[in-house]
Design a protein that fits this description.
Helices cover 20% and strands 29% of the residues. It is an alpha+beta fold. A 5-stranded mixed β-sheet has the order 10-15-16-13-14. Strands 3-2-5-6 form a 4-stranded antiparallel β-sheet, with no helix packed on it. A 3-stranded mixed β-sheet has the order 4-1-7, with no helix packed on it. A hairpin with a 2-residue loop joins strand 13 (192-195) and strand 14. Helix 4 (268-282) packs antiparallel against helix 5 (290-297). The chain is elongated and about 115 Å long. Residues 129-233 form the TonB-dependent receptor plug domain.
Length: 298
């Protein structure tokens, strides 16, 4: 009788453990189930922020806040990390919580002059910049479908002129001038190009790894480079790693180049006529005798 009672106790204890195990598994599955997250984005005064971008870290699920600051984001799991950004506000992060009053508070980016900009061998606060400079970000450069990076400078920064001298499939040689041509020496017109504090060619640099490009235009900005900066300088800063979860961006592009029009050249007879006319107006001798040319042509 004692043995039968012990077996019943063991069987009941096993059933209890099995039930607890299934409840734990069901609870975990329920906690990881993707749901629709609803919340609101406000500033420090409680006013709604319109057009804030909310996305799940390491995912492509994005939502925008409406005029009242409310948003609805699908396929969100409990404890997912959210990244929130908006123009004029500091970026914020939050952990997803499925509550009826989920709210994210964003701080206003009040001191815009606290940001820095690249200068020669370092960075400088924008409020202290007195030199003539122009800055374009890598995000803006990737919007221009150009084969060579510097061909996009004409439409993105001021004071820079680019001329495509010669090209071949997949590559072209582009001449750059900052505030026009500064010397009659054709071999010394190019500006100084510095990529991450190292002088190098800009033609083989892609737009995607670039953080920003700073154009130094006047003598005060290029004084540290001496005569090497006589034609201006282009300071390129590439992207750096950031803290947080891994982000991978993949972009694939293809295109082709073709001539918009091929000029029609003169034949030898018409060319001789033109040169003879030029020589006659200039008071010189004829370029070629037309009688010999007529017999040659036919």
């Amino acid at each position: 009788m004692y043995t039968t009672k012990l077996k019943n106790i063991r069987a009941g204890f096993s059933k209890l453990l099995l039930t607890a195990f299934f409840l734990l598994v069901a609870g975990s599955a329920g906690a990881q189930e993707a749901k629709v997250l609803k919340g609101r984005i406000v500033d420090t005064d409680g006013n709604p922020i319109v057009g804030a971008v909310i996305n799940v870290a390491e995912a492509s699920r994005i939502a925008l806040s409406d005029k009242e600051g409310y948003f609805s984001l699908k396929n969100v799991k409990n404890a997912d990390e959210l990244c929130i950004s908006s123009v004029g506000y500091l970026s914020a992060t939050a952990i997803a919580e499925f509550t009826h009053d989920f709210k994210v508070v964003m701080e206003e980016d009040k001191d815009l002059y606290a940001h820095t900009t690249p200068v020669a061998f370092g960075r400088k606060p924008i409020k202290l910049i007195t030199e003539a400079t122009s800055v374009v970000t890598g995000q803006e450069l990737v919007k221009h479908p150009v084969t060579v990076l510097q061909n996009a400078f004409t439409s993105t920064v001021t004071g820079v002129e680019t001329y495509e001298q010669r090209s071949e499939p997949g590559w072209s040689e582009t001449a750059m001038f900052i505030r026009g041509i500064r010397t009659m020496n054709a071999q010394a017109r190019a500006p100084l190009v510095i990529v991450d504090n190292v002088e190098r060619d800009l033609s083989f640099l892609d737009a995607y790894p670039i953080e920003n490009v700073t154009i130094l235009k006047d003598a005060a900005a290029c004084a540290i480079y001496g005569m090497r900066g006589a034609n201006g300088a282009i300071i390129v800063t590439t992207k750096r790693g950031e803290t947080g979860k891994t982000k991978i961006n993949f972009t694939q592009e293809f295109g082709f180049q073709t001539l918009s029009g091929v000029p029609e050249n003169q034949n030898s007879y018409n060319m001789a006529l033109t040169r003879n006319q030029v020589a006659y107006l200039d008071g010189g001798k004829r370029y070629i005798r037309m009688r010999i040319l007529r017999n040659t042509v036919g």
